[in-house]
Specification:
Radius of gyration: 21 Å
Strand content: 15-25%
Helix content: 25-40%
Largest sheet: 7 strands, mixed
Distance between the termini: 51 Å
Shape: globular
Bound molecules: pyridoxal-5'-phosphate
Structural class: alpha/beta
Number of helices: 15
Amino acid sequence: MKDFTLEVHGDHSYDSTGAISEPIYLSATFRHPGFGQSTGYDYGRVANPTRAALEKSVALLEKGERCWAVSSGMAAINLAMILLEPGDHAILGEDLYGGTVRLTQEIYGHYGISFEYVNTADTKLVKAKMRPKTRLIFLETPSNPMMTVSDIAAIAKIAHDGGAILAVDNTFLSPHFQKPLVLGADMVIHSGTKYLCGHNDVIAGFLTVKDGASKEAERIEMLVKSEGPNLSSMDAWLMLRSLKTLGVRVERQAETALKIARWLQNQPQVTDVYYPGLTNHPGYSLQHRQAIGDGGMVSFKVKSAELAKNMLGKLKLIAFAESLGGVESLLTYPIAQTHAQMPKELITRTGLDDKLLRLSVGLEDAEDLESDLLQALKE
Ligand SMILES: *Cc1c(COP(=O)(O)O)cnc(C)c1O
């Protein structure tokens, strides 16, 4: 079935009541019919029917064999990093969600794992950085917040040739626009909090693997069972509800984002606009080979840091807030918010500075968003 259909129906099967909406199973535990027997559900940390329905729906959309729904995007990223062992080397994109860099530097970096941050838009450089101990390549495309585009298929091949796996954080595009597993990645990760939820009201994360019988999948299953990062059934139900409108939301958001990106290019106070749907974006042709949409995230630079900071207090419709992907438009100041703890060296390498703003385009009318930006940009 096609994505719009999968998003609405997912893995839903009708129970004896004929309920159209998936039931919420709040039960923490499940009765066994007899000794050595199970309904398939024993204890809620290990599996819950509502969460299982969500996991199957996301796996269907990503074209993966197994998905785990967890309590946040960071919990999902943690499941990928915890597969590494002392002595291992991992290549990470240099422009990443700040929390991912913090997790690798402040936590896993202390366990004898070495992380190298590389511009993954440069495929040759990724190949040159491979070492005999490289076990993981982890990237975002488009990246956060500089919107650089990396070649998933080419980097998957480099990873596999060197005995490593490729994990892609697909948060910015959602599976509606890009399917990293189909392009060759082994794992796809989402902050479900963003487009998959879409309403700025649930914190959730997903990790989906291509091969449900791989040793990584087996290990993740054991970790989820042992560490308990699972998503609650109430939140799982809200996410199932959100998925039904994923396609209509992200297609409309991308359409408005392109309008706004073009409009920003014509504003005298704006010096640079980063959106992979603009024909002058360096990743434009690659983006259109590997994804069917450009997403709703637009980053841009204004003339001065003062102007950037002033804008944040002047916004009326758009909210100055962290996060993205919801129906409400948000403007983020990465240097002081999402990327405040990024190492200085990475900040200068990627060009993320105090003039950069990141807009998450919601479902409002494009003209109303432009009017709000126009009045906020006034010097
Ligand atoms: C928000 C975000 C995360 C972290 O997800 P949480 O749900 O906030 O834990 C990871 N990656 C990207 C690209 C994000 O935008």
